[in-house]
Every structure is written in C-alpha cells, then in structure tokens.
Design brief:
- It is a single chain.
- This protein is α+β, with helices and mostly antiparallel strands and about 210 residues long.
- It folds into two domains: about 80 residues; about 110 residues, Rieske [2Fe-2S] iron-sulphur domain (Rieske Iron-sulfur Protein, 3-layer Sandwich), CATH 2.102.10.10.
- The chain has one helix and ten strands; from the N terminus they run αββββββββββ.
- The protein has a four-stranded antiparallel beta sheet with strand order 2-3-4-8, with no helix packed on it.
- It is elongated, with a radius of gyration of 42 Å.
- It starts with a helix and ends in a 15-residue tail after the last strand.
- The N terminus is likely disordered.
Length: about 210
C-alpha cells in the first residue's frame, strides 16, 4: 500500500505532462494551421482584387471601342430623318409654295421598305431667300392641306381650316388647334434642299413628334 502512493504520485505528473504535451502539441499544430491560413486568405483576396481591377480595366478599354462601332449606326439613323427633296432652283423666287412627295426608306419592327412615299411637304423661299418647309398634313386630323396659286394661303378641304403662307392659323374659327408643322431644312452641296421629315400628333395645340 505504501509503495502504491508514490507510484501513483509519479504517474500522475507523468500523465499530466503527457496530457500537457499532447495539449501543447495540439496547440502548436492549430497555431501552425492559423499561420498557414492567413497567407492563403490574403493570397486569395489579392488574386480576387487583381482580377476585379483587370476586369474594370478591360471594360474601360472595351466600352469606348463599342461606342466607336455604334456611333456611326446612330449617326446614320439620325441622318435618315433628313430626306433630299429637291434643289433650291426649283422653288419659285416669288415665295409661292410648292408641294413635294417625301420618299424615303422606312422600317418597322421587322421589315425595311425602300423608297416608299411617307408623306408630303410644302417648300417655299422666304423673304430672306432661305427655304421654309411645312408638313402638308393638317394638324387637325391629318388631311392634306392644299395651296392654290395666287390665293396666298393654304386651305384644308376636310373641315375648312386655313393657314397663312408662314404656317399660322388664318381663320379664327379654325378647327385646327395649331398652325402648320414647320420642319427643319438643311441646304447641302450648295443647292440641295434636305428636310428633316417628321409627323406630329394631330388634334393637340402642342407640336408633339411621332416616333
Ligand atoms: S383635317 Fe384639316 S380642318 Fe380638319
């Protein structure tokens, strides 16, 4: 019995040491994993950041290139609104209006229709020799207005609106809520008359372009 006590006492510290070693060994091992883990995470984030910056830089290079490709298409689309109508010499110098059919390519969601009549315009030389253009549609309900030589005004045959040569409403009881719709004109190559042809919503006092 006496021998058992010291042996127990010796064995206890030993077992404590052993368990302490085991614990210490385990602690060292976890610490090593932690030490290894941090550089791995750092490397991952560094790589991710590098890839992100690379992607941003690539986008920065691609977007201007795409805009360069798209821009001519957009400009072409914008240009197609202008239609060559005639030459300036064909317009009477005394300011009488002349009517022209507008023929242009048109498209809908699925089809393209080349050189199709899409409307009509009146052109006239104004006092300062520039060219004025009006859409020939009456703003009341889209009948074509008519000009008779020598009358000095436009008349709508449908409901008797009439308009002065500068496009203003002429008769006080005009059913048309606004004057004729003026259109943008460009003189190109010195004498070609180009008109930005547009239709506008009928029946409203405001001039609202239709797409
Ligand atoms: S459509 Fe011209 S007055 Fe009605």
């Amino acid at each position: 019995m006496e021998l058992e006590g010291p042996m127990k006492e010796e064995s206890n510290p030993t077992s404590n040491e052993a368990s302490g070693d085991a614990g210490g060994g385990g602690g060292f091992s976890e610490g090593a994993e932690t030490v290894r883990e941090h550089p791995t995470r750092r490397a991952f984030f560094k790589k991710a950041l590098t890839m992100l910056l690379g992607a941003v830089a690539a986008l920065g290079a691609i977007i201007p290139a795409v805009m360069v490709l798209i821009d001519p298409l957009r400009r072409r689309q914008k240009d197609t609104n202008f239609v060559r109508i005639t030459t300036r010499e064909t317009l009477p110098e005394n300011g009488e209006p002349r009517k022209f059919t507008v023929i242009k390519d048109s498209t809908d969601a699925w089809n393209r229709y080349p050189q199709k009549p899409v409307g009509a315009v009146y052109l006239r030389r104004s006092a300062d020799k520039s060219v004025e253009a009006f859409n020939a549609n009456c703003p009341h309900a889209n009948c074509f207005v008519a000009y008779r030589s020598g009358e000095n005004f436009y008349r709508c045959p449908c409901h008797n609106s009439s308009f002065t040569l500068d496009g203003s409403i002429r008769n006080a009881d005009s059913p048309s809520p606004r004057g004729l719709d003026s259109l943008e004109v460009e003189i190109r190559n010195q004498n070609e008359v180009w008109v930005k042809f547009q239709n506008f919503r009928a029946g409203t006092p405001k001039k609202i372009p239709l797409s």
